[in-house]
Amino acid sequence: MNFDFSDDQRLLQDAVRSMLAENSTSQAVREVLEGRATYCAKVWRNLNEMGAATAALPEAYGGAGLGYLELCLVAEEAGRHLAAVPLSSSIYLAAEAVLRAGSEAQKQRWLPGIAQGEVIATAALGGSERYRAPQPLAFDGQRLDGTSPVLLDGAIAQLAILQVGTELILVDLNGPGVKRIALPTVDPTRPLAQIAFTATPAERLATADGAAVARRVLDGAAVLLAFEQVGGAARSLELARDYSLERKAFGRQIGSFQALKHKMADIYTRIELARAHAYYGAWALASDAPELPRAAAAARVAATRAFLFAAEEGIELHGGIGFTWEMDCHLYYRRARHLAQVIGSEHAWRARLADELIKEAA
Amino acid sequence: MDFKDTPEEAAFREEVRAWLAANGQRRTRADEMFGEGLDEAAKLARAKAWQAKKAAAGYAAITWPREAGGLGGTAMQQVIYQQEEAAYLVPQMIFEVSIGMGLPTVLRWAAPELKARFLRPGLAGEEIWCQLFSEPGAGSDTGAVRTRAVRDGDAWVVNGQKVWTSSAHFGDYGILLARTDWDKPKQEGLTMFIVDLKAPGVEIRPIHQMSGDSEFNEVFFTDVRIPDQYRLGPEGGGWKVMLSTLMQERLSVGGNLPTDLHEHLIELARTCTWDERPAIEDARVRARIADAYLDQQGVALIISRGLTALSKGKTPGPEMSITKLVAAKAMQDISSFAMELAGTEGLLGADALGGDWPYLQRLWLGSPGARIAGGTDEVLRNVIAERVLGLPGEVRTDRNVPFRDLDRA
Ligand SMILES: Cc1cc2nc3c(=O)[nH]c(=O)nc-3n(C[C@H](O)[C@H](O)[C@H](O)COP(=O)(O)OP(=O)(O)OC[C@H]3O[C@@H](n4cnc5c(N)ncnc54)[C@H](O)[C@@H]3O)c2cc1C
Q1: CB neighbours of B347 closer than 8 A, spacing ≥ 6?
Q2: What is the pLDDT of residues B52-72, one digit of tens each?
Q3: What pLDDT digit, counting tens, does each position of A201-211 carry?
Q4: Which of A121, A163, A349, B325 could form an S-S bond across to A300 if both were Cys, CB 3.0 to 4.6 Å?
Q5: Rounded to whole angstroms, how far apart are CA atoms B193 and A289?
Q6: pLDDT value at A240 more than 80
């Protein structure tokens, strides 16, 4: 058994970590938070040039051709540094959908642009919770009408993959009849938008079974997002731990209070459980194992809980100062919430996990 | 045991209803906020106008003696008033520190002529009060305050800094905890004062909080003169005065947990679908609706027990810490679940969604502060463990040492 990443994979992770430490600073992330930028262009460019964002895309389409294990470690660092870039929209969702469902021509047409970071892409592939009555999209084989569901990075994307019935539709957002509606979000560092289409030219992705591909892509995204969550949670805990060594009350470091030690030990324990599930998910994703649906759902649930807990208690451990705009605690609180809901909430993934377990037990 | 009004209580309820109907404005939506759409100055002016009417009718401080501006009423009457007022659009938070903490401290400790000076305008909302206890180096450990008050004839000269002072940006007066003796152990060298926040040498800087709002402040004191007459309680008696204030605070917090959050969840769950079915039919959603009720109603009932004790002349003690401990975390959990109900759409900003969302997202962004303000979750657990259950305290090295020496360490 070898349940760990290789030295080469860790080297890539280290390189991404140093790049992000330098460029995805609190200040850079706040440019997006406070609406002065729509994403961190420099970070995005670097992630693409390093072959980090495109680690799992085949070389034939301009990717680095490394694999999913590498991409998982990139995701962990992105989460850790709150990278405000279209990694999940372009790479985990849209590129994966084109790769798995597109014709050769469709792949040749779009993937190299995505791999170079020139084309930002997004996708909406289902999710089981709905709030507002959906406005169904209509596709007549050539043109698309209606309003999309909420799309990650929808305001800046040039390509969208949308599910219409059981089909996956590819639409060039530079085409006619596209109206973007940017929407305020609880985590403005990962913006959302809707897009209204009026007779916009669009085409089917080649696959015969769009729903199955969508499911498969979501499982992959669940694993990758779990790495982002583990990275964000681990950083939240570090910030709290460091502060608890510095801050004094009642003549002691607050980190010497057992109440805080146990709280931090609990956070750590949940993160490490989530990390173990995420690693297992990474293995299943990289080896295209039949266990993927189970492993992905487990990673998603464990990592969602770990990050929410670490972010909530991260503020609490800081006391009053943790409640201020200037401290980064709330950036993690917001990102934890974003990641918890962006491809559907915990409950649906927990149900999916139970479904898989029951199926396997039959 | 009986939750029905006695004939006297029923009569009081009728009086309150009639007064509110004649003077107040009913809510049209459950989450409608006082002064919606008004700017801060206009909202404050309208809030003060409302408070003035309320005080004139005696409802600003129902349990206070009449000569102090109250109604000489019972704690139950106070509850009845609050229950009835809940249906009306009234200011929230603006007078909370005044009525809940500042003025009760003045009532209990100030000289008669100061009571005559401050109580009436405070109850009427003409002057707003703040609580100036916390400092950068003294939060949970309030006894460690370093703001210095030095006697100069019949006045005190104050230098130092307070932080997290709610409402100071529109406040008029504050109760200020300062160190007057550096040679006594930390809690014994403190004295409480009334401070005029408009006095020369007071500088107030709003703090930008994580929600994006600025409801609390840093307050700096540079050679601020306070007449000795404004001292509350004896010199060196500040700790005891502060505990009496916190006791008041304990009675009023927890009561901040709305009791209708499960209704918001029900409303949302009726609108949302999970797997194409109404979320309200899903057993997991129903379980969370039940959980929301358990916490909210539990807190409300514990407060009722506290009030009953109060009406029998007993003082509810540290066990009332339970209410804030449960309430603040419940706010966080319930608002989080509300957002999760709507999946990806639940991430949209409240402005885009309308309905209950501005309210629920405010709770979600405010709850981390509620878990810290007025004693953190951890400090409240210590209070319950040590002061209710009688468990031994942590080993302390800062108790019997002159503060001057601690400060050096
Ligand atoms: C929204 C808001 C409004 C406020 N309004 C006011 C106001 O109007 N006036 C005012 O005076 N103050 C106000 N405060 C300040 C508040 O009372 C303090 O923030 C609070 O007491 C915590 O102190 P601190 O921020 O210094 O954190 P610290 O005391 O430094 O706490 C940091 C961490 O250490 C933990 N900790 C500390 N001591 C112990 C211990 N003995 N055992 C276990 N854990 C411990 C805490 O639980 C916390 O997790 C407000 C705070 C907030 C958030």
Answers
A1: A150, A185, A186, A187, A192, A337, A338, A341, A342, B339
A2: 999 999 999 998 999 999 999
A3: 999 999 889 99
A4: A349
A5: 70
A6: yes
List A residues 78-107 in contact with B (Cβ-Cβ < 8 A). none
Q: Which CATH class is domain B1-92?
A: mainly alpha
Q: Is B354 helix (H, G, I), strand (E, B) or coil?
A: coil
The answer to whether A289 touches B341, Cβ cutoff 8 Å, is: no
Question: Distances from the Cα of B331 to the Cαs of A158, B325, B360, B384, in angstroms?
Answer: 40, 11, 9, 21
Yes or no, beta carbons of A131 and B163 under 8 Å apart: no
Contact B140 A128 (CB under 8 A): no
Confidence at A38, pLDDT banded by 50, 70, 90 = very high
Q: Which of B64, B67, B68 is nearest to B78 (CA)?
A: B64
* pLDDT 10s digits, A93-145: 999 999 999 999 999 999 999 999 999 999 998 888 999 877 789 999 999 99
Instruction: Tell the CATH superfamily of the B129-248 domain.
Output: Butyryl-CoA Dehydrogenase, subunit A, domain 2 (2.40.110.10)
The mean pLDDT value for B8-33 works out to: 91
pLDDT, averaged across chain A:
96
Please pick, among B9, B113, B249, B394, the residue that the annotation labels catalytic.
B249
pTM as predicted: 0.96
Cα of B319 to ligand 1 centre, how many Å? 19
% of chain A exceeding 90 in pLDDT: 96
- Nearest-angstrom CA–CA distance, B397 and B409: 11
H helices, E strands: number in chain B: 14, 10
Is A346:B340 a contact under the CB 8 Å cutoff? yes
Burial-class residue B317 by CB neighbours within 10 Å (0-12, 13-18, 19+): middle
Residue of B145, B336, B345 to mutate when probing chain A, most A C-beta within 10 A? B345
Q: How far apart are CA A277 and CA A300, in angstroms?
A: 8
Bridge-based pairing of strands B173-179 and B129-132 is parallel
Interatomic CA distance for residues B63 and B71, integer angstroms? 6
ipTM reported for the complex, 2 dp? 0.96
- Contact at 8 Å (CB) between B70 and B58? yes
Give A171 or B358, the one with higher predicted confidence.
Answer: A171
The CATH architecture annotation of domain B253-374 reads Up-down Bundle (1.20)
Distance in Å, alpha carbon of A246 to nearest chain B alpha carbon = 12
Every domain of chain B and the residues it spans: 1-92, 129-248, 253-374
Which domains occur in chain A, in start order?
A: 7-85 (1.10.540.10), 121-208 (2.40.110.10), 211-361 (1.20.140.10)
Which residues on neighbouring strands pair with residue A139, listed in sequence order? Answer: A144
Instruction: Determine the pLDDT at residue B255.
Output: 58
Instruction: Name the residue among A119, A116, A57, A47 with its Cα closest to residue A83.
Output: A47
